[in-house]
Amino acid sequence: MNNQPIGVLDSGVGGLSIWQEIVKQMPRESTIYIADSKNCPYGSRAPHEIFPLAKRIVQFLLEKKVKVIVVACNTISVCALKELRGEYKTVPIVGIVPVIKTAAIKTKNKYIGIFSTVTTAKSGYEKELIKTFTSGCKVTNIGTEKLVPFIERGDIDSEEVKKVIKIVTKPFVKNNIDVIALGCSHFPFLAKPMQEILGKNVLILDSARAVGRHVGRVLTKNNMLTSRNKAQHQFFTTGNANKFEKVAEKLIGDTIRGNVIYVRL
Fold first, then answer.
1. Is 182 among the domain residues?
2. Is 137 in the active site?
3. Is 228 contained in some domain?
4. In the chain, how many domains are there?
């Protein structure tokens, strides 16, 4: 048994989509979430910039004595996960990747879409996943930086964000895709307007449930499940704590008032 918290990190509020699923699947487990809001978004940064930024956040979580670290950011996962695991070997580090394999299995017409940030879309890691799992499928791979700023403001349902979604997803419509794998942890918060725009026949997949299950397996394998009956959750941000609090409450539909702390890294 291990009663230390699970550490969850992201460049901003997007990782809350992963955090929410972890808490849902393991309601007794305590968590510490940290958002590097000051440096958000990561998705437009060059790969060589990602590792130094991610190291700071991992170090912060280790100082908080977390028992496992969940990198709830696709960009960090595809650009720096291997290096982070090599540098920090005292705790398990779980990353996230687009559910490309699942998309290739679920598609009926063999036309699938992958929707992520620019850096993730260009990464060698994602290209390798496409090569490995999408044999026989036509893949439309789109990376965009236009949507994360909306989510960071808590704007997930305005006409403006819907207009941008419609523009950036045009290639999916043009290429008749029937399954989309979301490759950015921010994007599940736009799943509803995305579904309205793309139509009910398009299946939208994200990795949150799979990550939650994997974290559970890691804790079980390492005998790290908590023995406590009540969880505690703390949130940290390198940006404005009040803003993070308000946006997070809108995104996850739950109050975290008073639990968000500014941290300077």
1. yes
2. no
3. yes
4. 2
Per-residue confidence (pLDDT) for residue 223, from 0 to 100: 96
Which residues of the chain have a pLDDT value below 70?
257
| Coil, strand or helix at 235 | strand
Q: Which domain holds residue 177?
A: 100-205
Is residue 233 in a domain? Answer: yes
Q: Write down the pLDDT at residue 27.
A: 96
Helix (H, G, I), strand (E, B) or coil at 8: strand
Query: Residue 46's pLDDT is what?
Result: 85
Three-class DSSP labels, 109-161: CCEEEEEECHHHHHCHHHHHHHHHHCCCCEEEEEECCCCHHHHHCCCCCCHHH
- 201 Cβ neighbours under 8 A, 6+ residues apart: 178
pTM score, whole prediction = 0.95
DSSP state at residue 69: E
134: which 2 tokens? 């999408």
Q: Scanning the structure block, which residue is given the tokens 């901003």? A: 12
Q: How far is CA 50 from CA 47, 53, 77, 126, 129, in A?
A: 5, 5, 10, 16, 20
Nearest Cα neighbor of 19 from 173, 208, 153 is 208
Q: Contact 69/58 with Cβ under 8 angstroms?
A: yes
- Which of these is catalytic: 40, 73, 79, 137? 73
| pLDDT at residue number 75 | 94
User: In the prediction, which pLDDT does 256 show?
Assistant: 79
